[in-house]
Amino acid sequence: MERPDLKQLAQEWKEQSKPIITQALVNGASQMSKNMNNAAKEANQSPKILFGIIRNTVTNGLLSTSQDIMANSLDIIRKDRNKGFQQEKQKQEEV
Q1: Which of 64, 68, 67, 70 shows the shortest CA–CA distance to 35?
Q2: CA distance 5 to 3
Q3: Which DSSP symbol is given to 46?
Q4: Strands (E), the chain
Q5: pLDDT tens digits for 48-63?
């Protein structure tokens, strides 16, 4: 691959990944916010327990966000691969 091809590929990946990452971050932040609110409602907890809940909430939010990004990225890769196979098939049929 020549340098312009790599730049074009990087630009395409950047454009395709923006909505995936944005949606995953929104979902992860919403989930973390909800869980943090639930943890804060129980005010009679010791600070140690509360910090443990917060740590688990942040960890689970990050994992959830990462899983969303990976799942959505795989869907796009599959769609692109299928599109490439269809284009290659059409080229072969034209010949």
Answers
A1: 64
A2: 5
A3: -
A4: none
A5: 888 888 888 888 888 8
